[in-house]
Design a protein that fits this description.
101 residues, alpha+beta, Double Stranded RNA Binding Domain, 6-stranded antiparallel sheet, 24% helix, globular, aminopeptidase, aminopeptidase activity, Aminopeptidase, protease, hydrolase
Length: 101
Amino acid sequence: MAMFSLREFDAEVGRIILINPSFDFDSYPPLGEKLVSLLSASVVETQSDADLHSWLIDFEGCQLFLRAEHYSETMWIEALSPQTGVEELQYLAQLFAMGIG
């Protein structure tokens, strides 16, 4: 079974919600790094709040947010704005639909 797969893709708002392994606030960073590595992406910047990790990542020259909320154990990737990263998100949605990891 794939480590990461597609739960939902909302092209209109530019968001991919993932099916992912369980995690908590402290165990998320290695999981996020694993996903970033599988995508051959890189982390540009990270921010952690009370229950949310927000990472700015670079995927093939396109900057996207990788976010993870530990109470719901939900991870998602979203565009910086609905008008950017459309092709990249469509590609990633297809990749996650097949499952990766």
